[in-house]
Structures are given as C-alpha cells and as structure tokens.
C-alpha cells in the first residue's frame, strides 16, 4: 500500500537511531535452530535501516550472510514477488508481506511452511492473535510476525479542555461529544476524520466490533463485506459525516495534517504507529497537546480493539537455505537489539510480547510519548493489542477489495449511496472479481 513510503520516511526522520542493545533472556534460544552451512540470504523488505540490523545478525551468526534489498513497499514488492514465484526463479529467500495481503501469496504455493524449521518454538513470544495471521489454518506457519497496529483514540487534549469535551469511553458518548463540540465551536471544529480511502482502517473498526469479512473451509471461501456489523459501523460513521461532525480528508495528505495542526480536527482513530506519524508530520505544531485513550466501545465496560497494519516475514520455496532464513526471521522479530533498532529506525510497533514491554519503548522524553505530553503511549496500545479478536481472516483477492472500497465510499460520502448500498456494491464487485480469478467463493 502507498502508506509504506510515507511511514518509513516520516518516522525515520523523527526518531533517533539506537546503538545495539544487549539481548535478554526473554527471547528464544537461537542455538536450538539448526541451519544450513554457508547460508547466503537475500531479503526483500521496505523497513528503513534493516541492512544495519542484518549486520548485527551476521555478527551473531558469522556463517550466515544476509543481503537486504529495499525494492519498495506494498504493491511494488508484491508485483515483483508474484512474478518471481510464477516464473519459478528470481524470488528472494525472505520477503516482507502485510497480513492482509499474505493470503494472496499463500494461494500461489510459493511460500514455505516454516513448521519443519522450528517456527512453532517462537509462537509464545508473540502477541497471540498475530499467530493466526501467519497461520490461518492453525497448522502451516507461513511467516513470522513483525509488527501490529491495534487501534486507539488519539485526541488533542488542549482542544478537548477548551470546549470541555470528555474523553468518550463508548461510541454513544463519542457521538454525544461530537455534537457538543460542534455546537460549542459553532461548527468550526470537527471531532474526527473519516478515512474513505483506507479500507483496512474501516475494517479495523468493524474488527473491533467482532465483524468478520472472509472465511475459508478447505478450498471454499465465503465473503460478506456487507455483514450486519459492517453496516452498523459504517452507518454510524456516515451519520457523523452527514451531521458535519467528521471531515473526509484523504489519508496521509498535507491537507489532513494541516487540519490537525490548525485545530480543525480534535481527534483521530489511529493505529499504534499513528502517533509516530503524527509527530513526524506535525513536528512542533501542537506538539505536547495530544494524548491517547482506549478505543471507544460499542458496549460499556468492554476493551475491544481492531487492527490496522502489520506485516510478517516469510520464506519462499525457492530458498536454498530455509532453515537459516527461518532463524533470521525469528531473530529479527524477537531479539531485543533487532526489535529496538526497528522501533527507533522506522517506528515499527513490535508483535513481540517482550518488545512491547521493553522500557526503551516507554520513554516519556522520546516520540511518540514526547509528542503526547510524556504519556506512556506504547502502554495504551499494548493494552489495546490484548483486545484484538484472534478469529479474523483476509482473502487472496484483498488487493481488489482494498481498492474498490475507495470507489464505494466516495459515492457514499457524495450522498449517492446509503451505507447499505455502498457495502452491497463493495460486496458485489469484490465477489465478481474473486470468481473471475477462479476462486470458489460464496456470500455468507
């Protein structure tokens, strides 16, 4: 997705590099992983600074050489990887793939099962639901989780205080405070932005409400983009837009960040990497004014969240060194020095349990905590990660689903579609695309 280049550049510019840290005992015993002699690994990834992290790996494992190629994020890498897999040659040993796009590679039969190489030994070191993302059937392990993006509410405390807006704990309270803010500011301040151009953002919100969009049984798929929960969530957000309580700026644009900076928008539903992007984009503008709170709930007292973003590192079947490649993937995402370097170099919010608990991520004088007035932002998101539903799947045709969302939401925002009509069109177009690609898929 186009978000990758922006994230890497923005966060890398705002967060200092980290000197290699000492490892601790809360990580796998890497000596238990047998590897092929003389292994030479080629790694495709968009993570900034991964080449320097790979050098640390080589120091610990001098018999394994690693070459990192940053060939671009999202579609740029995916197209080249799909081409290499279909050709039967030219694929790297290791590649980075987002969770939502992983099924589209699983169906190519080009990814190795990491179970024979000891991947299950690493399972307990990661946030529980992430393992379901890399092992959809619970048997074959297609990758090692790297990062996650649980959702929370980021809000401008200065603006909230000015208009006496309470931090909402439920979506009903959120709507009430949105109305209060609009009246108090005479319509000048909106409470939030609706992202009509990022399907994973909306899906994450439905995920937090226990919504499901795809399911599979053997070789048969089912899709229900217009499920009742999705309709409830979309209707809620469309209502905010229609009443003038929410803006509809395109995501990650100067216009959006100017609206945050000048006080036009008071809050935003953000993934765990969002505060870092906000800090990098706004810099000194409103720095220190922001805070993060748990995602509002549909039912008072619950603590559910959804996820937006995150990726895994896979091993291709073309690799001559799958054991060494598996070890690299596990080390990269569990070893303290690697996890911390990825955090400081690129703002990667780790899927590693120990990484989330590391004191280095909770420093009040460093962004994103510094940007949020010294608040322990990471802890809020670490807690949110515990509330993400494990039982959630993506589809092999998600690339089309992702793009088609923009078309249908633009029609809804323009008043041409109701939320139900937008979801029905999204469902119909995506279902046809899946069948045209040869998938056996039905409506749920």
Structure write-up:
A five-stranded mixed beta sheet has the order 2-1-3-12-4, with helices on both faces. β7 and β8 form a beta hairpin. It has helices at residues 3-14, 50-60, 75-87, 102-106, 128-134, 157-162, 171-184, 199-208, 228-242, 254-261, 274-282, 322-334, 336-346, 353-357, 377-385, 398-413, 419-436, and strands spanning 39-44, 64-69, 94-98, 143-145, 151-156, 192-193, 214-217, 220-223, 246-247, 267-271, 290-294, 311-315, 441-443. The model is unreliable at 4-25 (pLDDT under 50). It folds into two domains: 3-148 and 308-362, D-Maltodextrin-Binding Protein, domain 2, CATH 3.40.190.10; 151-304 and 391-443, Periplasmic binding protein-like II (D-Maltodextrin-Binding Protein, domain 2), CATH 3.40.190. 41% of the residues lie in helices and 13% in strands. The protein is α/β, with parallel strands linked by helices and 444 residues long.
């Amino acid at each position: 997705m186009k978000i990758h280049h922006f994230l890497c550049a923005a966060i890398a510019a705002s967060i200092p590099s980290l000197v290699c840290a000492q490892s601790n005992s809360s990580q796998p015993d890497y000596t238990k992983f047998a590897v092929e002699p003389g292994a030479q690994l080629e790694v495709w990834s968009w993570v900034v600074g991964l080449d320097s992290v790979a050098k640390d790996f080589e120091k610990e494992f001098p018999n394994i050489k690693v070459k990192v190629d940053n060939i671009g994020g999202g579609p740029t890498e995916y197209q080249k990887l799909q081409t290499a897999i279909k050709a039967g040659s030219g694929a790297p040993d290791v590649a980075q793939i987002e969770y939502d796009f992983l099924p589209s590679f699983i169906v190519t039969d080009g990814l190795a099962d990491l179970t024979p190489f000891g991947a299950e030994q690493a399972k307990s070191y990661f946030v529980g639901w992430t393992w379901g993302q890399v092992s959809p059937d619970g048997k074959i392990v297609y990758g090692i989780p790297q990062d996650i993006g649980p959702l929370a509410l980021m809000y401008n405390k200065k603006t909230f205080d000015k208009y006496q807006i309470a931090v909402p704990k439920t979506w009903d309270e959120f709507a009430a405070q949105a109305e209060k803010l609009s009246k108090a500011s005479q319509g000048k301040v909106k409470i939030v932005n609706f992202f009509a151009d990022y399907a994973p953002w909306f899906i994450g919100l439905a995920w937090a409400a226990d919504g499901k969009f795809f399911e599979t049984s053997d070789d048969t798929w089912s899709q229900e983009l217009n499920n009742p929960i999705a309709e409830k969530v979309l209707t809620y957000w469309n209502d905010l837009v229609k009443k003038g309580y929410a803006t509809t700026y395109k995501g990650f644009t100067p216009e959006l960040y100017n609206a945050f900076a000048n006080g036009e928008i008071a809050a935003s539903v953000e993934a765990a990497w969002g505060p870092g992007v906000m800090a990098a984009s706004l810099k000194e503008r409103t720095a220190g004014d922001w805070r993060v709170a748990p995602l509002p709930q549909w039912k008072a007292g619950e603590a559910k969240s959804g996820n937006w973003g995150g990726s895994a590192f896979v091993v291709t079947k073309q690799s001559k060194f799958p054991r060494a490649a598996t070890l690299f993937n596990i080390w990269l995402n569990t070893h303290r020095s690697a996890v911390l370097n990825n955090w400081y170099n690129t703002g990667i919010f780790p899927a590693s349990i120990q990484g989330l608990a590391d004191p280095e991520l909770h420093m009040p004088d460093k962004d994103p905590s510094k940007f949020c007035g010294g608040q322990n932002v990471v802890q809020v998101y670490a807690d949110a990660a515990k509330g993400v539903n494990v039982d959630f799947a993506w589809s092999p045709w998600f690339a089309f689903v992702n793009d088609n969302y923009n078309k249908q939401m633009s029609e809804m925002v323009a008043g041409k579609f109701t939320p139900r009509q937008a979801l029905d069109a999204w469902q119909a177009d995506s279902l046809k695309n899946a069948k045209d690609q040869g998938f056996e898929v039905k409506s749920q």
